[in-house]
């Protein structure tokens, strides 16, 4: 079993030590209880397993598509471990007082959670090995995300992932550029999220990926899946002017989290960084979004009314991969919209006509009021015609 699989399974050791059982057997099978209660860490434990399994299916389920449904030269590598996790476990609740953490899992430990970026930087700096591996996260991740995910960063699986990615960056071409890996967190603060759109792999050709799922920089040819997304949006929202570019940054700024399951990829090798640990991390990201257990320093967690996203978010689950990632989301609190993937290979089998953009806003306006929807047409404003 690969190292990351062991790390994932360590989150799901027995949560209750049975009294009067064989002392030696209990000691061998139960992890040492964590003495420091950490809200996000508890959520992250429940967020791990689905991501590991979700990475095994391409696009809309077709073996000939990559994360965005584009034809790929190589299928994603699949972790065929027989002890693979169950998808729905990602969002299951557990008893905070009885949860356990593997002794092999590295953490910031018994110190209080940091409240600012600089405070966290100082704590990380106390361990030179951590600082060397986590400087990118400390420097480039949006602050509310950084603070919400701080316990995740020093876990063994993430430190191993960073070592792998850093070595890849030294010897191979890796996308997106390092400074763009966490652009989703800077453009779309945790507190502002209303809609989540899940991709699988970053684009793996030159000049495409810049940290937002489905998005490419201005001046880069619009990918086929994104063209289909634009077409569907125009059909649903006639005021939406199809832009001449594929940069979705404006959507992110309006509260749309565009998150790939893997945040990096080797150039021209689809799925090359799958099953290395990114799926574990992005599963924790999704758990933070749905629970809002650790909002940024500018927010108060005392009342749901003070946390903008606490009344629920919309998941647009396009294709089998995204559907699996959302499998355990509480449908009483959040809206899950499922359809075929926008890839040219599957768009005509249920993506076109799904009315997801319209349905999302109708639901958000009920939850958050008349101004609660996403201004989808902002992306094409002033573009003066389709591409």
From TrEMBL:
GO terms for cellular component: mitochondrion; nucleus. Residues 186-364 form the Uracil-DNA glycosylase-like domain. GO terms for molecular function: uracil DNA N-glycosylase activity. Its EC number is 3.2.2.27. This is Uracil-DNA glycosylase. Excises uracil residues from the DNA which can arise as a result of misincorporation of dUMP residues by DNA polymerase or due to deamination of cytosine. InterPro entries: UDG_fam1 (IPR002043), Ura-DNA_Glyclase_AS (IPR018085), Uracil-DNA_glycosylase-like (IPR005122), Uracil-DNA_glycosylase-like_sf (IPR036895). It is an enzyme of class 3 (hydrolase). It is found in: Mitochondrion; Nucleus. The active site is at 201 (proton acceptor). Residues 33-48, 61-78 have a biased composition (Basic and acidic residues). HAMAP family: UDG. GO terms for biological process: base-excision repair, AP site formation via deaminated base removal. Its main location: mitochondrion. The gene is UNG1. It catalyses: Hydrolyzes single-stranded DNA or mismatched double-stranded DNA and polynucleotides, releasing free uracil.
